[in-house]
Amino acid sequence: FFHLQKKRRAATARRQHLKSAMLQLAATEIEKEAAAKEVEKQNYLAEHCPPLSLPGSMQELQELCKKLHAKIDSVDEERYDTEVKLQKTTKELEDLSQKLFDLRGKFKRPPLRRVRMSADAMLRALLGSKHKVCMDLRANLKQVKKEDTEKEKDLRDVGDWRKNIEEKSGMEGRKKMFEAGE
């Protein structure tokens, strides 16, 4: 038992040591990449953006401004062209992925499980916090004033329905119904 416990401790210690060594290596690699990117950026700027020397006369300043404007225009055109190219390629990529999806075949539906859920819970799941509809249908009904009709008067005259049922139950009730039907 103790032997197994020692092995486990050694394995976890080794695993922790390897993990920390990998993290240190990754950190140094990230630092090297950042430094390389910075050097690459400096080289690009030195190549494409020479240091600015301002001339003394007005005529030379105007010429410099015209050159800078022309350069800005050309850079903007390049940027626009690359954006359009990027949009085209992304659209093409989406179309190709859609074709690939279509070629693979129809989407298979996952097997659905039956879930018992009340109407209120279903509405709450669908509508979220907006759920204010109550599925108690009787609560949403309008109150209607009943007018006295002849049927209702007749029903009131008859009285309690239980009394009528008791009178009509048994053989005597059937006899009365039979005699009333004649």
Report on this structure.
Keywords: Acetylation, Actin-binding, Coiled coil, Muscle protein. Among the domains are: 1-50; 52-105. The protein is built from six helices and no strands. The protein has helices at residues 2-48, 58-104, 119-127, 150-158, 161-168, 170-181.
Throw out a few tags for this protein.
single chain, Troponin I, fast skeletal muscle
Please outline what is shown here.
By secondary structure, the chain is mainly alpha-helical.
Strands, helices and their partners?
Elements: H1 2-48, H2 58-104, H3 119-127, H4 150-158, H5 161-168, H6 170-181
Structural class, by secondary structure, is: mainly alpha
Q: How many individual β-strands?
A: 0
State the helix count.
6
Gross morphology is elongated
- List low-confidence stretches: none
Largest sheet: none
How far do the termini sit from each other?
Answer: 101 Å
Note the quaternary state here.
Answer: single chain
Strand content: under 5%
If you compute it from the alpha carbons, what radius of gyration comes out, rounded to the nearest whole angstrom? 44 Å
Tell me the helix content.
over 70%
Round the mean pLDDT to the nearest integer and report it.
Answer: 79
The helix/strand order is HHHHHH
